[in-house]
Amino acid sequence: MANRGYAYRNKYAYDRAIQDLDQAIKLDPDNTLAFVNRGDAYRNKREYDRAIRDYDQAIKLDPNDAIALNGRGSAYAGKREYDRAIRDFDEAIRLDPDFALAFNGRGAAYYDKHDYDRAIQDYDEAIRLDRNLARAFYNRGTAYSSKHEYDRAIHDLDEAIRLDPDFAVAFYNRGYAYNGKREYGRAIQDFDQAIRLVPNYARAFLSRGGAYNGKREYDRAVQDFDQAIRLDPHNAPAFSNRGRAFGGKREYDRAIEDFDQAITLDPNAAVAFNNRCFARAMVNQFQKAVADCNESLRLQPGNGDTLDTRALVYLKMKNPDLALADYETALRANPKNAPALYGRGVAKRLKGDKAGADADIAAAEQISPDIAEDFERYGVPPL
Which of 50, 176, 274, 320 would be a feasible disulfide site paired with 42, CB 3.0-4.6 Å? Predict the structure, then answer.
């Protein structure tokens, strides 16, 4: 029974595995491995509390069972109890210093605590111990991507895919890294492959739509966001991103409807308030626009994108002093922010500072040659 249960677990037939392991434990209540395997089955079903009870029993029977400690650590991580998870991984590593999976698991717990450098250290060790552990390459690539080190991320995700060519989420994350590099064509190729492997992959449709937005192919973007929403009708980012695509098509009323829905689904979605602020500015609803930007900044104080948007609203309201203040703050955070440089240039011209305006606008156009056309489309023509 125990062996058949183990075989079912490896075939992802978790319910049948649990049935057989129940019988095995009845026949031999001291069967440590049966408790571990049943714990694994429950963990893979995301029934973390039941998994932990089984791992507890296995550890009670054998306190030196590193595999049981590793499994319990993974279950605690599933419950987002990352400190308890790390303690279990620590003990598993103490008992077996060559346990690559425990290093990988601990790295994942540190990653979920946003401690990316410690996560990478553990993934390094997992890879040193097992060069064929695709999940460790994937995890390290994801950590590098979170640090915006996209080239290193892509290198690791390449290796994860080489080791496991059907690793859909690795294609997805490599596409995400290419998106970060604004290599939208390559990103779309990876999202295509992720969707081929998992046809109902809502996040891949969402991200591919984002890449089409980046290419300004708004109709194709809308199609992908439609699909993401069909698969997950409560997906606030999908509504927010579809709103951006409608904005790109200058269908601002439809954009605002989508931002409304995104905010209904997630009232703390700062980006949706920022996007609605922009759309309302485009239809000259200036006071409502400012209110949205203010709420976005309350949720994410000092966010450069939202400061940019609010400054644009102030420009359209012919208030260069308020616009200038927001652009200055945005540029302190990112001195190469082309929209902020251009907008500050416009604000300076409105205040009569031609030399300062010319310098800012030239710097903006060097970074983004089409920036003047963008602002004209926003209703802020060259002065």
Answer: 50
